Amino acid sequence: MNPLVYAAGYLWLWLTTMLQLPLSQPAGSRSPIPLSHDFEKDGQVAKWAPDQPQAWGEESFKLNFGDRPAALAFNPEGSLLAVSFGTEVEIYDTSSLERRHLLQGHSGIVTHVEFHPDGQRFISGSERMGRNMETLVRVWNLTQAEEERKVTHGLSDIAEKAASTATHELVLAGMWSAEDVEMETAALQQGIEETLRAAETRRDVRHDRAFVGTAAKFGSHTFSHNGSLMFYISEHNTAVALETSTLTEKFRMSHSDAIMWVGASPDGNVVGTSSWDRTVRLWDAHSGELIRTLAGSKNQNWAGSFSPDGTLIAVGSGDSIVYVWNVETGELVHHFQGFRGWVRTLSFTPDGAFLAAGSGSGTVQVFEMATGRRVQQWQVKSVHIGPVFEISDLQYSPDGTKLAFKMADGRVVVYDGEENLKWEFDSVENGMYIGSQDLVFNTASSIVVSADSDKDVRFWKL
Ligand SMILES: *[C@@H]1O[C@H](CO)[C@@H](O)[C@H](O)[C@H]1NC(C)=O
Ligand SMILES: *[C@@H]1O[C@H](CO)[C@@H](O)[C@H](O)[C@H]1NC(C)=O
């Protein structure tokens, strides 16, 4: 792999997921976004749902955080919502919107959260960013999380004592004045606390309670369907499968370049990995053996998904094509074109009849699996293939009636294909921002929740 392309890919990944670059705001670029092609049904262009489009400020509800929220997840029953912001995670009761848990176990920025199917265990994954130098995957038992929190608070007490001892010694030695103590104590205490936390992390890694690596993105699931396995990326080219109950390593899956997506098949028997080495690999979930390598893509592979019945695997590629292979035979069943830019987000309908995919240039297309026919096309009107038009978080609602996605400038778009209705929720910050955060449907498919760049998490009723 050309190192320049590799470096550019990483820079891009970092730019689009982490950094939010304020751009100069083109006048009149606000809602609704101009389209050259909209969703339609029976030749009729999609209509606005009542009171649409809307903008920030008109949401049904919002939560505000001290840092930018990055990742969201509902538990399987939909009674809890996890929000990561900065190095912390908070878990809310969705009926009262009261905070249930505060999870402080990272020194890197938490960019992935996910509940185990049992609703009791929980994963958080952090990434290295700025001076937050850590890539770590942590497994929590939420029943014990309150205990862990006490331990964490204990660390700040210890740091306070250590800082006070140190400053006392410095004064006794005649090195520091009372003014120095006053000026430096807070920073010293913070530094000691960070050092202690880092030592705690190293200890947890030694005892297999935390894992050095990252949770895969682009539609990846950390847990297999019944939660017996979990996956993370250790170094760029290797994905690790752990037995969730014991947190012991089962096997490793390797590529010759960075892995972007990992997921288990719905029956839990096959694991798929999608990589920048232009291949997709299928692995036996019991033995860890490589079953098959799926090639054909002419560029880096990104998002992947098994079809709900597990017979197909779809992968979006940097060559602007979505490849669909038969899992059993390895035969290429479809290659869907018409995208501009890479394809880094895709979603099957819950019944598996349709596949939606979104690209880097503001294109969303939906294909019928039985015929390979394109049935929907949504295209931003622009000759520019610019980063603000990247589509992310494309997903069908749990009931399959609505398709939702985000654009890199923070917009949320939702379409109901049966009613031919659309919603658009626009950001109204003093600038456009590259890099959107997470978007999730509630379990009833009646609300979309968006983590936004102004440190708010917004709830939009549909
Ligand atoms: C979580 O912790 C509780 C309380 O210690 C324990 O009873 C339970 O078995 C734990 N659950 C798992 C899945 O480890
Ligand atoms: C989870 O699924 C795997 C793969 O099908 C199976 O081998 C395992 O027994 C299942 N575990 C549980 C706890 O159901």
Automatic annotation (TrEMBL):
Residues 1-29 form the signal peptide. WD repeats lie at residues 252-293, 294-335, 336-377, 439-462. It holds the Pfam family WD40. InterPro entries: WD40/YVTN_repeat-like_dom_sf, WD40_repeat_CS, WD40_repeat_dom_sf, WD40_rpt. Keywords: Repeat, Signal, WD repeat. The keyword Repeat applies. Gene3D superfamilies: YVTN repeat-like/Quinoprotein amine dehydrogenase (2.130.10.10). PANTHER family: TRANSCRIPTION INITIATION FACTOR TFIID (PTHR19879), TRANSCRIPTION INITIATION FACTOR TFIID SUBUNIT 5 (PTHR19879:SF9). This is Uncharacterized protein. It comes from Jaapia argillacea MUCL 33604.
